[in-house]
Amino acid sequence: MKTNPAAEARTADTERADRNTRTASWFALGMLVPALIGSGLFVLSTTRASGCLTYGVECADVPPGWIPGCLVAAVVLGVAAVAWPRKWLPFTSARGWLLGLHVAAQLMTVSLILSYA
Fold it and tell me: How far apart are CA 111 and CA 24, in angstroms?
């Protein structure tokens, strides 16, 4: 049986790139909790947030479901980027797109939390 060395090298490169993207996805998913805790602690240390909690004044104009929605999107996209089998990906760069969307949802969640500061 003849093998094509160029095709094997391409497959090995694709597998290596997918493995690197999966590692980056693990890192980004692991950074979700510290980012949420850090932004929450920062917001709670401001006078505006304490006035919002104590007296209900100067609160941010964030719609009620946006922070939990962005958090759920970040978690679902992060888990999909980490756990989706490579054979089931619709195209080779799908995991990279999932990682990018996860990071965008994570940044949006943190930005919405920081808007209370």
Answer: 21
Q: Tokens in use for 23?
A: 């590692």
What does the buried/exposed string (b/e) look like for 63-99 if buried means 16 or more CB atoms within 10 Å of the residue's CB?
Answer: eeeebeebbebbbebbebbbebeeeeeeeeebbbebb
pLDDT in tens, the chain (117 residues): 567 777 777 777 888 888 999 999 999 999 999 999 999 999 989 988 888 888 888 888 888 899 999 999 999 999 999 998 888 888 888 889 999 999 999 999 999 999 987
DSSP classification of residue 46? S
